[in-house]
Amino acid sequence: MGEEQPKRFAQISRESVKTYAESVGIGDLSEDAAAMLAEDVCYRLRQAAQASTQYMKHSKRRKMTSEDFNRALKWMDVEPIYGYGSQDPMLFRTTKDAELYFMEDKEINLPEISMDGKIPVCAGKTTVRAQWLAVEGVQKPPIQSGPQGKRNGQVQAQTLSEDLVKYHENVTKAILGNDEDIMKVALDDLRTNSKVSSLLPYLIQFVSVGVKKVNHDLGQLTKLMHIVMSLIYNPFVYLGPYLKRLVSSVMYCIMEPLAASINPLNDHWTLRDYAARLLAHICKTYNSSVNHLKNQLYAAFQEVLLDHARPLCSHYGAIVGLMALGPKAIEDVLLPQLSGYWPTLMVVLEDTSLSNIQVKTDGHKVYGAILLAANKMLKYKQKEQLSTKQHSASSSPSQSPAQEPTEFTFGTASHLLHLGESAGSLSQSDGYKLRHVKKSVLEWYTELYEYFGDCLSLQLDTITTCNPVYEPKLTSLADINNVTACNEHESRFKGELRHRSRSTRGTSIAVKDAFTLPKNFRSMRVQKPQFLFKGFTVRASTTSKRSLSKQKSIEAGSSSSISILMKPYGKMMNKISMTHNIAVARKLPTLSCIL
Amino acid sequence: MAESLADQSKDQHPVQQHVQRPHEERTPPHVTVETGKDVKKMDKQTLMAVLQFLKKNNLKDTVDILKKETNFSVSDEEPTTATDQDVSSVLSAYTSEGDPSQYDDNYSNVLAFIESALDMYKSPQHCFSSHAAVSFFAKHFGIQEEYHQEDLVKLSTVTKKEHMKSNELMINFRSSKFTIKMSRDSYQLLKRYLNDKQQSVLLDLLQEHLYIDVFDGLPRNKQQIDATAGAMTGAARREANKTKVFYGLLKEPEINLPLEEEEEGAEGEDKPKKKKVKRDSHMGKKNKPDPNAPALSRIPLPSLRDIDKMERVIAMRETLKRIKVSADNLPSICFYTFLNAYQNLTSAEISEDSSMMAAGFADSLIRVWTLTPKKLRAVKPIHELMNIDKEADDVLERIMDERTATDNRVLLGHSGPVYATSFSPDRTMLLSASEDCTVRLWSLQMFVNLVCYRGHNYPVWDVQFSPYGYYFVSVGHDRTARLWATENHQPLRVFSGHLSDVDCVKFHPNSNYIATGSSDRTCRLWDVSSGNCVRILTGHKAPIHSIAFSPDGKHLATAGVDKTVLLWDIGHGSLIGRLVGHTDTIYSLCFSRDGSTLASGGIDNCVKLWDVNKVFGEVDTDEITNTTHITLSENTNYLFGSYPSKSTPIHHLHFTRRNLLLATGPFVI
User: Fold this and answer.
1) Residues 6+ apart with CB under 8 A from B341
2) Is there a contact between B134 and A2 if contact means CB atoms under 8 Å apart?
3) ipTM computed for the complex
4) Which residue intervals make up region (Disordered) (chain B) (predicted)?
């Protein structure tokens, strides 16, 4: 029976003792001596452990620290272990191959820590705060102000009137339910009802818990965002105290790699765009010099962009988030990061292996988003310049609107020259101050041109006349068909669409996505005009796998083979689009751009 | 009877026999003889088995060994399987006895006896061979009362003769006798049996290591035995608690009226007469001589200075505004949370008048906070003090340097965690006890260290100022409590007697006694004037970490690792109440100023309020004559309320003079 006793205490085996002996140069330790030593060491260890509990108890802690043990050693006349104790537990690890167990004790590279620029946060000063634990024997239910507000449910039952509880129940049910009409009513009410404010903590809680719970269901997430929208547009509601939680829920939808994004069929991009716009509105309304909301958001987005290990959808979220926050955000946060971020994106985009398709499509999304952001910024810059320089005659880009897009046939270089002139004339007059403070449009343009090439130049022209707000609208299928049948210059897609439609091979959602594009499609300038097939439009089925392979072959092919490939491809596409009646307008020449 | 006869026929099957025992125990008391027989039978088997075990280990000189446990020789032989079986059969017999039902006194006594006997046995046993020790230990584990388990765990680590010499627990067991209380009947039965059977081994063992405290009267039941058991060396002996304790409060000194009037004038002229009348009636009560109070001159106390008298007047006035705590009128609790303490806070203390708070930290700092709008100010530097008019009325105010006014001050001087702090009654000084073996006295007027008292050889766990100032007492890992006077660098008294660390200490309100709580699971009351131990209170099953005297000095509350609060009557030295409800170690106790409520708190992050008046009321009605028969009503609910904090363990509790409860603790993430 004795042998089967469970080990009550940590034991040190003879082998360990021998190993230690060898490490200090005693090779021939006898078995008996090792056994004796092992036993003695075990006993001493236990004693030290028992003694150290006393120090733990008197420090009124539950957790024993290395300091406690060190003190016990000190008072047992054993040399203590020098250095600073850590509050963090030591990790006990094992190697996979050899049967070796050890304490993980990583070497700390001090120079690296000191050089990486992260200044450790200064530990807070010990302070005392007084509060009432109970007043005349009655303890108030704890009010949770932080994000971990699980107890709110209980509070709700106690403090809300029955009607409000009922209202809350009904509204949440209606919104998450399947009936769209009821949902609309509920959302409308939330937007206009003046008595929502007492329910605010619960609604915010509902959203913040909800986004985490239903992050597999885009529909529900969108509905939750609808609630946020209703609340922020409600003129009777002040969201100040709940801002943190509200923003964190919205940010969650913008940047988190949602469970729904695993499936490429899900269009989580739209949700991110939507949430980004909500965020922008919140920021616009509630940013103050006290809460520094804007700066906090900048920091949060920047952090995501800097972290290249994050999935592309997070980066996309950060970019659209910044874009929504305005040109200033793009200029200050996004574009400075571009030089660091670009190579990572390019690696993704240039990897043509089959396994990379999913990632690559995501990459194109990000590319499109950056492009859009860059354009938006440039446009803003340009406007700014123009407003400061009203009399400038070089306003031709802004006045060559989309009514005559065909006029834009001059080459890239000439356009650049054109812009250069305008910038030059600006600097000659009173642009000194401007240039002194920030980069001029030209500088930005040249910088961005390095990334985007010609995609940018055209955008800059037309963008000035376009509606700057990216307004998604449900467009009927007929519209799209009209558009596709339309004239070439009208059906030009902006750069993003190109990626969007490419990224949605085989997905039906993509169709919807395409529908949500603005009607006034921005015209597209192609780098090599010889590949521009005028009037040639293709309807690409989004469900066809074959189209994928075709497209791949197109990409793989040389520029000369394109024209050959083009015909059967187009025909097939036409056929499919006829039968399925789900079509995405696709302009083939854009393909050639990527080649 | 029939059962018992049947049992006799099954002499050779101890296990079966003892399984039936519980039935037998329910027979009425008049069949004591039969029970006694039974005990004998069982004893015989036990001893036989033990002896057999010893013999098999080639220990012919067992008797000698047991007499002088250091003389044994280490056995060469590994215990055989047969031995193991023997032992297991005997031990399983015990197990069946361990059933928690009503045992009759004989039975429990023998059980206790066997327990202790085995405790004794363990020391030699462990040395025979580690193998035997481990198996022995394992079997033992289930049988022992749970409160001895901690000792057993400690003992079980001892497997070598050499280790025995240095193990504190071993030394304790060898050097002191384990006390067992037994009724006379049981004792006689035991003695007769031992004589009959010539169990010389056991007899010697008994003489050597056990002290049997025989009392007259009815045998106790298991529950009664349990109430007082638990200490490292068994229950307290009866004569240990015989000395008379003057638990009454000292007579309040007459405070001359002129001073009062001055005070009144300063405070407000509107209703001085009313107050005076009230105070007079208050004083009138106190002036009756209390037969239990010690004479004022029993220990020399510092004479009252004007400032002390003023303090007393203020305190008394506050007392008049006091709110009576009762079930309908529970106190409010104000919680002072330490933020950013990072597991560093080791102790916290609030001054008697609730104006200041001191906290000791693991990084050897002491911080003092003011809890009132009055800031902490230091005295002006010397060259400025020279210019002050010493005859001015407000000279005490003038010497303070406004430039130094701040909310908190840091006192730096210790070189180890500060485990306790204590304010002097006049709040001009602060004591601190630290791991660095020293007690330091700090001035709260200059915020410097005045004296460093060296005397303890090991970490000092607790320190407390006498309620009358001048004296203070410190306790520590060296198992002693020391009484000091602030002006002496050597202790005046060393109270030794505890068998393990002394973890906490408190002065009796009359300053004539101190109470110490220890890791040997006893609480002792010491006489300051003679240095003698006047009470040994046993009943805790784990180390004691907190002690509180009731304001009237009659009662004592103790609590600690075993999560229960025990209430004691000091006059009789008996246990009168047990408050169960905490889920982790209790680190703080405090009586309300009117003595009707006890607050307790600990690392279970919960403050609990107990209706101790109810406990005292229940006990006071029936006179306590028989201290051995303690019946605690377990079912009564004494709890007033339970107030959990979010994530803040309670380090210190304090009732203000108006009965507002203050609690402190560090917020732990």
Assistant:
1) A126, B361, B666, B667
2) yes
3) 0.76
4) 1-39, 258-299
